[in-house]
């Protein structure tokens, strides 16, 4: 029988952001998917003002891993204590704390402590594995926090919606079966779906610049399954999207793993809202723009405001096109039965 040990790691980094800003990012877990690259989705299950339980999904090394976090927030001390049940870790549990201390004007020291009780010796939950994990998490937090004074112009959130007089099941079926979209959408050349477990999809797709003809249905943009981009010249492009599907809740959460410039992070969800006469389908987007000059992605002379407008218009248009197709898919059988 392998020996059992408790391994621990402690790391500290200096962050060019005030302590209250860094603590706020740590405390606001639902925003992690658009701020921290590894997170696909964070769902708050309960919250009493100090203690909370979270379900978190991360995408690392080509795989989606889910875990449950129990956290205690201590805003006065700028500390967060946590215990994470994570089947991906040998031993299954990671416990620890985040602490943030002021370090002069506009700077802070952030410390992450982690330990794994009952972790088998020699595994990735040993000292080296824990230390590498802590270093990676601190680096990603620092990168996000040091944009704090520019986030108002870099963050973008919006939604598109459509009214559907048809069964919610048909709308959800259309949105879920993304592997069938190349047969329906002329601007998607190919797509492949890996579903390691039910409801967790990793979608790779190629998009083309073809325009839709009259028989193609109500849309013909350059969208991927959840609003991903084609090439900036209208030609073919590839992308990857992670999707978490919750059929009983009528939701599909998505995140692009490597969005094209000028976007740094792009997450969102499809949401079906039934009522007595039909349903409203909503596509919500949360976007973090890059800080590189807008001209690098949009052409000489482009300004940050141009990047915001271009991203908003393109993703909005592509979402509306997909929503119209979902509406057509759901309402066509209803029309045939009348």
Task: Tell me about this structure.
This protein has two domains: 4-146, START domain (Alpha-D-Glucose-1,6-Bisphosphate, Chain A, domain 4), CATH 3.30.530; 152-337, Alpha-D-Glucose-1,6-Bisphosphate, Chain A, domain 4. The strands form two sheets. It has a seven-stranded antiparallel sheet. It has a seven-stranded antiparallel sheet with strand order 8-14-13-12-11-10-9. It contains eight helices and 14 strands. A hairpin with a 5-residue loop joins β6 and β7 (108-120). 26% of the residues lie in helices and 42% in strands. The model is unreliable at 209-223 and 229-236 (pLDDT under 50).
* Continuous helix count: 8
Per CATH, what is the topology of the largest domain? Alpha-D-Glucose-1,6-Bisphosphate, Chain A, domain 4
End-to-end gap: 68 Å
- The strands making up the biggest β-sheet line up spatially as 1-7-6-5-4-3-2
Radius of gyration: 22 Å
General shape = globular
Regions with little confidence, pLDDT below 50 for 5+ residues: 209-223, 229-236
Which structural class do you get from the secondary structure elements? alpha+beta
* CATH homologous superfamily annotation of the largest domain: START domain
What is the average of the pLDDT values?
85
State the order of secondary-structure elements, H for helix, E for strand.
EHHEEEEEEHHEHHEEEEEEHH
